[in-house]
Amino acid sequence: MWVLVVALNPWALHIGGRSTPLLYWHGAGVVLAKGGKNFPLYVWFAPGGPGGFSAGGRRDGKRVSAQLQGDGWLCIAPGTVQRLKLSGTMYGGYTTDADSVLEFRLLEWRKAFSINPPNRGFFEVAGRWRGAELVMDRPNEQGVRFNTGPFIDSAVVTLRWASYEEFQSICGASR
User: Fold this and answer.
1) Model's pTM, two decimal places?
2) Is residue 109 packed enough to be buried (19+ CB in 10 Å), middle (13-18) or exposed (0-12)?
């Protein structure tokens, strides 16, 4: 299976300038939402299901090259973490992600045994790698209010390679 994923997504061996033999990247940053609200965020992502080049669509003149999947954790209050589902798209690149545009949708986690939960909040971010940082600074990305309260709209975030424990310490010290 690993060989097949690498054949379809060779960029996943080296994500964000790092060797990633397990085919995923993880990092943390602080989301800045419209109105000046800050929310620490931790994400991991990897190649998603099939649908790369044939999926159609363009962004910044680049074609879809991969689907992305993963999870996120958003600190909504000191020590209080909201789990998120990450889905996304990579535009441009096949062998490398260096000049690609990445787009994430971070959606409220679906509770167990909930087939089609209504009104799940989300926010979207998009951007590019700048060295080892994933700078997701595209303006006017949309968001829908979370059921837990936060409304994150027109968000920007710079993600750096980090562990979940580093995120937890930022969350515990936030606000």
Assistant:
1) 0.89
2) middle
Cβ atoms of residues 85 and 71 within 8 Å: yes
Tokens 């990247």 label which residue?
Answer: 25
pLDDT of the chain, 175 residues: tens digit per residue:
888 888 888 899 999 999 999 999 999 999 999 888 999 999 999 998 765 455 567 777 788 989 999 999 999 988 899 999 999 999 998 888 998 999 999 999 877 666 666 678 999 999 999 999 999 999 788 899 998 888 999 999 999 999 999 999 999 886 5
Could you give the C-alpha distances from 90 to 13, 65, 66, 114, in angstroms and in order? 15, 6, 5, 29
